[in-house]
Design a protein that fits this description.
elongated; five-stranded mixed sheet
């Protein structure tokens, strides 16, 4: 109803619907956020109705305008503290209870601080932080943690390093703190090698230490020295790299000298020290003097050197010869060709090869005597069984001669009164050496040798045969020429092939018996020789063989040349025929001594005659079918032949059909 001025209206009906309240939002406090983190998001965990809206309220319960979803982002803005919010779910016109949420923003812990340190290489060092919960890292990304706590112990430091520190509180980490380690590298010091010094020398050099340091050297750095057996110490406030040895080495003997170098740590009262280096100085007296015996030396082509008993450091000072200075236990003359026979003077001294100290000087002298230079002459290429071969060398008054020959050869004297002549019988082929030694009146000895090669004689021989033609003999060389051979001292066989040449006299039973003997050189000795012009009967060819050593042998053998004589007469010929062999009428024969031929026509007229026989016993006449330059007609012509062969037998003629022979017959001329 509605009442106005005390007047009440009629009753009107009203309906109300009572709805359930929305479920309260489920939220949790956020307490692990650091001031440097991203803005945290508050989220309602239960959201059964996607169409529901939400209201967010600040700590003063003032609605945060514009935020109606189930999440809300808290803006940190570099502000730490506890921040309170309320959230309410809205469904339709119904509202849930407001649910509180706390957002806790934690501050960043303070940066840990530790003083940078300076330490000596190989030492250990301890860093100290201002925070008990310091974490120590060796990398900028703080991945490789090395310690946790107030202190960090670094062992056996080697190089400059940077260490990184952080602390954690309430899940938050501090910014990175940095501390430095500066390492003073240990210096290196060297006194050099052990040394030998000669005590008799006036100037003993000072000893200076060589220092190698990667760290800047200051006036606070010090050397420490000691000399044993004479101990010294350089005061710590002194910076002396040199010690005066002459003040401490006062006699021969060994002295141990030791030092180290120490670099002052600028951060605290400590020194970074090098290892000790030490060196031994051995003070020596004079070296042993060399020993050289004065004697006679011989002026040979190469003058023998002088020998002394000393080390390789021995020195020769020559007053007369060149070089003026020699080194070593042997002195070799450099101007041999300019040296005259006489006395030469030297001063020699030596050095100890270990200490380098010099000996006292020693004077020596030598006499240069004339040399022994035997000059052996005689044959060095002989034939075996060559006897009384004379060999001689130059004679010098007062000299002694000794002869030797290898191979058990006979060596002897004849009527020569002096010892500079010998005779040798070379009875066996091979290699031998003849040696003569001369020792002069001054004791100078010289040698000369001749290498003698003894060649065997050739053994000549030949084979002969008649190859077919009755006046030709084929000779084949069968000579045997042995090599020179022998065994060396090592049992190795050595040999030398001996070439030879042939000289032939082919005998007297030849047409041209006045021809010169034939000479066959070595490269052709095995080539058979075909020699023509022999006559019927016996002959005594001679082969003379001469080898390259002049050894000569001869061989002869009687041969018999039997004749095979014959004569053939053609029965026709054709001067105009292309074939060369049938153009002429020419009887063929061999070993013909004399021959005459007459050719007649059928009327008995002589048309051709010839008696031409060459030196080889061949008939060489031939008829071309002409008479007085005129061509004769084709016809039958009659020939008549008289011939005598080389063996003196007459030609019988051509056989007839009745067992006889005819010295005439027909020949047909064809055109």
């Amino acid at each position: 109803t509605e009442t106005v001025n005390d007047c009440e209206s009629e009753k009107a009906p009203v309906e109300y619907t009572i709805k359930d309240l929305p479920s309260n939002p489920l939220v949790f406090d956020i307490d692990n956020i650091c001031v440097y983190n991203n803005n945290p998001i508050i989220e309602v965990q239960n959201n059964p109705n996607p169409l529901a809206e939400y209201k967010w309220f600040n700590a003063n319960n003032v609605e945060i305008v514009g935020e109606h979803t189930h999440t809300y982002t808290h803006e940190i803005n570099n502000t730490v503290g506890i921040f309170q919010y309320n959230v309410q779910r809205i469904e339709g016109e119904c509202e849930s209870e407001k649910m509180p949420i706390n957002v806790i923003i934690n501050p960043r812990p303070s940066v840990p601080v530790s003083r940078s340190l300076v330490g000596c290489q190989n030492n250990s060092i301890q860093f100290e932080s201002n925070n008990e919960n310091t974490e120590w890292y060796e990398d900028e990304d703080t991945v490789n943690r090395i310690f946790i706590g107030k202190y960090s112990n670094i062992l056996n430091i080697q190089t400059d390093s940077i260490f990184y520190m952080v602390t954690h509180q309430n899940g938050c980490v501090s910014d990175i703190g940095i501390t430095h380690l500066e390492v003073i590298p240990l210096p290196l010091i060297s006194l050099g090698e052990n040394k030998d010094i000669c005590f008799y020398e006036d100037d003993i050099q000072d000893l200076t230490a060589e220092v190698e340091s990667q760290y800047s050297i200051t006036g606070e750095d010090i050397f420490e020295w000691s000399v044993i057996p004479n101990k010294i110490n350089v005061a710590p406030d002194k910076n002396s790299a040199t010690v005066t040895l002459a003040d401490y080495i006062i006699d021969t003997g060994k002295y141990l000298i030791r030092t180290r170098f120490r670099i002052k740590n600028p951060q605290k009262n400590e020194y970074c020290s090098s290892e000790y280096d030490k060196v031994v100085f051995s003070a020596h007296g004079f070296a042993q003097s060399p020993r050289v015996d004065s004697s006679v030396i011989c002026k040979n082509k190469n003058i023998e050197p002088l020998y002394g008993e000393g080390t390789s450091e021995m020195i020769w000072l020559s007053h007369d010869a060149y070089p003026s200075v020699g080194e070593g236990s042997i002195y070799e003359f450099g101007n041999e060709e300019d040296l005259d026979v006489g006395v030469y003077h030297f001063t020699v001294y030596d050095y100890d090869s270990k200490t380098g100290c010099k000996s006292r000087e020693v004077p020596v002298s030598f006499r240069l005597a004339p040399p022994s230079v035997p000059d052996l002459t005689g044959a060095n290429r002989v034939c075996e069984n060559q006897i009384e071969e004379r060999y001689v060398t130059k004679y010098n008054e007062g000299s002694i001669y000794d002869w030797k020959v290898s191979g058990d050869k006979i060596i002897y004297v004849k009527d020569d009164a002096r010892g500079n002549v010998r005779y040798v019988d070379w009875d066996v082929s091979g290699y031998d050496t003849l040696t003569v030694m001369e020792q002069t009146i001054d004791g100078c000895i010289g040698y000369d040798t001749i290498a003698v090669r003894t060649a065997p004689y050739p053994i000549p021989s030949f084979d002969w045969s008649l190859p077919g033609a009755s006046n030709i003999v084929l000779y084949t060389n069968q000579t045997i020429q042995d090599s020179i051979w022998d065994y060396t001292a090592n049992g190795i066989l050595v040999s030398e092939e001996i070439p030879y040449e042939l000289f032939w006299d082919f005998g007297k039973n030849r047409r041209n018996s006045d021809s010169l003997p034939m000479h066959v050189k070595y490269e052709n000795i095995n080539r058979p020789l075909e020699v023509g012009g022999y006559l019927y009967g016996y002959s005594d060819p001679v082969m003379r063989v001469v080898n390259s050593y002049g050894c000569e042998s001869s061989y002869t053998e009687t041969i018999f040349v039997d004749l095979l004589a014959d004569l053939h007469v053609p029965n026709s010929f054709a001067p105009m025929n292309p074939a060369q062999g049938v153009r002429y009428f020419q009887p063929k024969g061999f070993n013909i001594y004399t021959m005459e031929i007459w050719v007649y026509d059928l009327w008995g007229n002589l048309v051709w005659y010839s008696n031409e026989v060459d030196d080889e016993g061949n008939f060489v006449g031939k008829w071309d079918g002409r008479y007085n330059g005129k061509v004769l007609k084709s016809d039958t012509y009659i020939w008549n032949i008289e011939a005598i062969f080389e063996d003196g037998q007459p030609w019988k003629g051509i056989p007839d059909s009745q067992g006889g022979y005819n010295k005439f017959g027909p020949v047909i001329l064809l055109r």
